[in-house]
Amino acid sequence: MSTAVVARQGVLADALVPSTALTNTALVIGGAGLTAVMAQLAVPLWPVPITGQTLAVLLVGSTLGPVRGMLAMALYWVAGVAGMPVFSEASSGLAAAVGPTGGYLVGFVAAAGLTGWLAKRNWDKKFLGATVSFLAGTVTTFVFGMAWLSISLGADLQQTLEWGLYPFIIGGIVKSLIAAAAMPAAWKLAARLPKDSSRA
Fold it and tell me: What are phi and psi of 35, to 5 degrees?
């Protein structure tokens, strides 16, 4: 597949597979599944653990685009509420979904939408643009998460920053940089794949 063809496809998923109801459903389920797996890579902290979730959110949003990315995160939330052990530390249930860390889960939906929207505008094809995109997605998650955390625990601004931001700044930056390196590399790999004339 030529670089020109890849560029026309929009997000990475569309450059790799045809957009059909079946593939879109599979991609959404796969995005939710990846997030569930990455959520189990956790460093326990109170009240918010450091996990691989946010890295998955960034990659899913950028790869699938805004609609499928947001649907994947919504499915992830619903699966957790339904009792599947998909949240960090294999937790699940409504209490986990709407508890002190629930805002981060809501933020995942918004972050996937934002990074997907930027990916459709080619921000994820170069390292600098991808870095800005993924940092913006990370900040979006924090905004939702800290607001929810503050309300849920009745925390003041200083407490909210200490519990919901400061311990995660370095991790958030590192995960954004990992994603920013991965996506342009994935696009370069996609450009080298054999061209499928039926999708050109």
Answer: -65, -40
CA distance 76 to 74: 5
| Amino acid at residue number 34 | L
Burial of 158 per CB tally in 10 Å (0-12, 13-18, 19+)? exposed
Q: What is the mean pLDDT of residues 5-28?
A: 84
Task: Give the count of beta carbons closer than 10 Å to the beta carbon of residue 182.
Answer: 18
Q: Which residue has the tokens 């020109």?
A: 4
- Nearest Cα neighbor of 57 from 78, 32, 25, 82 is 32
CA 114/CA 119 separation, integer angstroms: 9
Return the SS3 of 50. strand
Specify the residue for token string 């409504």. Answer: 94
Q: What pTM was estimated for this model as a whole?
A: 0.87
Which tens digit of pLDDT belongs to each residue from 183-193?
A: 999 999 998 88
